[in-house]
Amino acid sequence: MSSLSPLVASEASVGRADEIVQRITEAIHLGLLDDGERLPVEIDLAAQFGVAPMTVREALATLREQQLVETRRGRSGGSFIRRPASPPVDQLIQRLSRMSASDVRDLFDEHTAIAGQAARLAAERAAPYAVRRLFALTDQLGAAGTLGDRIRADSRFHIQVAVASQSARLARREATLQAEVAGLIWLPAEPEVDVARYVEEMHAIATAIAAENPDDARRLAEQHVMGQLARLTQVNLDLSTTGPET
């Protein structure tokens, strides 16, 4: 299944059912898997993740318990995605509260390196249809009316930049990073994201890629990523001081 492929690392096999649950859950919340989309059969999923079919069966059972997957029987049956209306905000807050300031900084340092290089290569290699997709995703974020829609449009944009770089490794790493950062960036906490400015920055990155200007594309992508570090550091500090609400 092409939607899952960016989240399935080729360097090492996923060995436990809970890790498969995490990967598929990430793909759902990032919008890489659409509501109602049919997953591959168990034997094909097992091959993609490099595990035994029994492990996939266990993971699917957990996903059904979490109401993220629905299994239907019959000729047209199978396992189908049930995407929740909103992302798991409480879980995201708990995860951020467990991170140190150094953890947050290191995460953004890595994302800056990956996003910057992906944008630079995209400016040199991107096909016209890939560039059009970037502008479409920018428009989607600007028009997004829910937290889930914003997270999905944002993460898809960054993954699309990496895909446009025509580097499979960068695309896989960006997808994994988006699973870590996208939900955190859009947490409904003070200080809030300046959505209009955020969209403008994405549009500028897409414009530099369309103009085949690798230096500007890299600089703008790096600035865009690091621009959220100060905000998340403040949110993280507030959580460490007051604790997450329960």
From TrEMBL:
UniProt cross-references to Pfam families, sorted A to Z: FCD (PF07729), GntR (PF00392)
Instruction: Kindly indicate whether the keyword Electron transport belongs to this entry.
Output: no
> Mind listing the UniProt keywords for this protein, alphabetically?
DNA-binding, Transcription, Transcription regulation
Presence of the UniProt keyword Thylakoid in the record: no
Q: Name one GO molecular function term.
A: DNA binding
Reading the lineage from the top rank, the first entry is Bacteria
All copies of domain HTH gntR-type, residue ranges: 14-84
Q: Coiled-coil stretches, from where to where?
A: none
CDD domains in alphabetical order: WHTH_GntR
Report the SUPFAM superfamilies cross-referenced here.
Answer: GntR ligand-binding domain-like (SSF48008), Winged helix' DNA-binding domain (SSF46785)
- Give the matching PANTHER family: TRANSCRIPTIONAL REGULATOR, GNTR FAMILY, UXU OPERON TRANSCRIPTIONAL REGULATOR
Give the protein's recorded name: GntR family transcriptional regulator
Q: Which organism is it from?
A: Mycolicibacterium anyangense
